[in-house]
Amino acid sequence: MVMNPGMLLFGLFDSAIAFFLVYNVTKAKLGGNEKMLARILGASLGTIVFVVYFGIIVWFNTDRNTVSQAARTVVYAAPIVLSALMIVLVLLSQPPGKRTDSEEDEEETDDTEEEKTGAAQS
Q1: What pLDDT is recorded for position 82?
Q2: Is 25 left (phi over 0), alpha (psi -120 to 50) or beta?
Q3: What are phi and psi of 63, to 5 degrees?
């Protein structure tokens, strides 16, 4: 069994995407960064998904397999497509008027500068 090095790197990259997708979704569903159980369970499930997914990609690249090219393409693209959809979902689910802390800090400094110049002119 000889595997193309490019395909091996792709398998590692694709499996890493699957790991982070499962880890972050599991962690978010079970309570976020505050709960240690959520982080442990997310890492455990993510590691299992990484190993299984990488094993499937290696098996697809062996000489003796009966998987069609269409099925391979779906399996190869699944983590990338799901991650892109999750990113879009997160961006669309944010409230429209939400400001970041840096924007608030800039506005506060602008307000204090205007107050200082107004007091100096009086």
Answers
A1: 86
A2: alpha
A3: -75, -35
The CA-atom distances, in angstroms, between 56 and each of 11, 52, 60 are 9, 6, 6
What's the confidence (pLDDT) of residue 91? 81
Q: How many residues does the chain have?
A: 122
Q: Is the pLDDT of residue 2 over 80?
A: no
Buried b (16+ CB within 10 A) or exposed e, 85-106: eeeeeeeeeeeeeeeeeeeeee
Q: How many CA atoms lie within 13 A of 1 on its CB side?
A: 9
Q: Render pLDDT for 52-83 as a digit per residue (tens, 0 to 9).
A: 989 888 888 877 777 788 888 888 888 888 88
Are 1 and 63 contacting, i.e. CB atoms less than 8 angstroms apart? yes
**Which residues are CB-contacts of 77 (< 8 A; sequence separation ≥ 6)?**
none
Radius of gyration of the chain (CA): 24
- Tokens 């409230």 belong to residue: 95
